[in-house]
Amino acid sequence: MIMTIVVKWGTEWGCEIEVDEDSTLDDIHMAIQNAVRFDNDHMYEFYIARTERTRNRESYDQESEAVYDTKIKDLFPLPPKMQLFYLFDYGDSWLFKVSRSRKAPHAPVPKAKYPKVVSETGKRPKQYT
Question: What does CATH list as the number for 2-122?
Fold first, then answer.
């Protein structure tokens, strides 16, 4: 099944991406990288927490290899009052909020390639200025 995720960078930019529900967090990382058109040249992690600064968090990173084993369908729905964050580049700290759209999952469209950006709002961030 195909699910739609919403990715937001503050209030300045956001997009909806259709992904296969069996996509790993590493697949989601690549989908976000392609959506923002960043160079994939830094470490990253996903984490679940109440807020972006909460210390009590469940992390999915490259060192533990959790990003390669965890599927997006296994994270949603998130526990109450919790959010999923994607942190890219520990130096520049690009932080994105990832959520599931209210759109119902659907069967893949024949010949369509996923992941696929289906909408975008605002001005895309620039990795290097």
Answer: 3.10.290.30
Pairing of strands 116-122, 13-20: antiparallel
Q: What is the pTM of this model?
A: 0.94
Torsion sign, CA atoms 11, 66, 43, 1: negative
Model pLDDT for residues 46-103, shown as the tens digit of each residue: 999 999 999 899 999 988 889 999 999 999 999 999 999 999 999 999 999 999 999 9
**DSSP string across the chain:** -EEEEEEEETTTEEEEEEEETT-BHHHHHHHHHHHHT----S-EEEEEESSTT-SS-EEEETTTTHHHH-BGGGTPSPPTT-EEEEEE-TTT-EEEEEEE-SSPPBPPPTT--SSEEEEEEEPPP-S--
Domain residue extents for the chain: 2-122
Q: What average pLDDT does this structure show over 97-117?
A: 96
